[in-house]
Here is the input.
Amino acid sequence: MKTIKAYQGDSYKFHEDVIANKKHRPTDPTYKNRLLALNPKIQQLFIKHDDKFSKDEIAILTPEIFTNRQKDDLKSLYDYSTTPFIHLKTTLTTDDNGHIQPLCPFCTINNSNTLDHLIPKTEFPEYSDNPRNLMPCCSECNSLKSSKWRNGNERMYLNLYLDSLPSKQYLFVDCVIEDNTIKASYYIENRENIDNKLFNRILNHYTKLHLCERFSQNSYNVISELKYLISNCQEFLQKDAIKDIIYKSAIKERDQYGWNYWKAILKIECCNNDDIFKYLLGL
Here is the structure.
């Protein structure tokens, strides 16, 4: 889980670019004209959205009334395969140093290959192409997201543009050796008194996206990497020196991908658990 910087450009200008990129439909010759006719209303709605976004009040927004045809037209604006959205994903996944950060910010397992609507476009078709409502993510996370995103006037899940993730550990892992294999089980706990509202969002988000289960399923790759690293170091480094290398690399990963980066959590636990580390050493 990692926060990223929201779109810094003009949201409505992005909307205009999306429409300009749309091709005329021979079977529906009035399609683009219908979209253009909605622009004055969409401009005002984007201003409202971006104002609430800046104040972290998007949960109090109410859907605009449109005809079914207008809703379909607005929802059709979103097309991940088209140039504006491809460029948007590149912008959102490029850090301040100009480096692409490909990992999905929701899970940090898979690479981002789509854009998620933070406010569902089925409920708010007017924001289907608002760039501040689009989060780069992987298709697995996108498919697991629920259309129920708020409870009353409160967001239920994290918005990684708006929520500041705490520099406190809430993700933990237990490791045991079973059938000559390390089994890792992840879980969430509020041991460091994180604000309850934020922690509940974190817990809801991890639960809805099955993150702990997915981390556990992918832990084998991390264990394999550690065993390979250790086998290459054992000839010329002592046990404590190897452990120090692994621990320091985990801290660097945590600095890059977030305090609760699942790979770093696992590596640190492998260093702290004597039985697990001995197993990795082949002892």
Summary: The beta strands are 114-117, 134-137, 150-151, 154-155, 171-178, 181-188. Residues 35 and 46 are 15 Å apart (CA to CA). The first strand starts at residue 114 and ends at 117. The chain has a mean pLDDT of 93.
